[in-house]
Amino acid sequence: MTSFEEKVCAAIGKIPRGKVATYAAIARAIGRPRAARAVGNALNKNLFKSVPCHRVVLSTGRLGGYARGTAVKAKRLRGEGVLIRNGRINLNKFGFKV
DNA sequence: CTAATGACCATTA
DNA sequence: ATAATGGCCATTA
Q: Which residues of A are catalytic?
């Protein structure tokens, strides 16, 4: 576990149920404002099990990727009350500021 | 050391 | 609205 990944993990852990955060927001929160891409990279590799990594989405409101498939990601989010319309999420409503 | 690889982002056309 | 573009950055080979 690199320290970068630790921070990513910690930041994601703060996202409350029923809300989502963007990769860019996470990057900002850990002090690497331009490392959004690296954040996704870290998640993909680690497959964080005890962390709600499904609550991390693109800044456009789209889902983005998910190691086990975007279908699962969408399902889990819907299960938490996040409304997904046309494959997109309203960040003004469900976005969480870390 | 260099080069390649992404669960990305913002801008531009 | 969509598509292409250039940039960005931690990790890994």
A: 53
Supply the pLDDT for residue A61.
98
* Angstrom distance (rounded) from CA A9 to CA A3: 10
Residue A77 near residue A16 (C-beta atoms within 8 A): no
The average confidence (pLDDT) of chain A is 97
**Would you say the C-beta of A80 is within 7 Å of strand C?**
no
Rounded to whole angstroms, the distance from the CA of residue A81 to the C1' of nucleotide C4 is 35
The reply to whether A64 has its C-beta less than 7 Å from any atom of strand B is yes
pLDDT per residue as tens digits for the range A74-96:
999 999 999 999 999 999 999 99
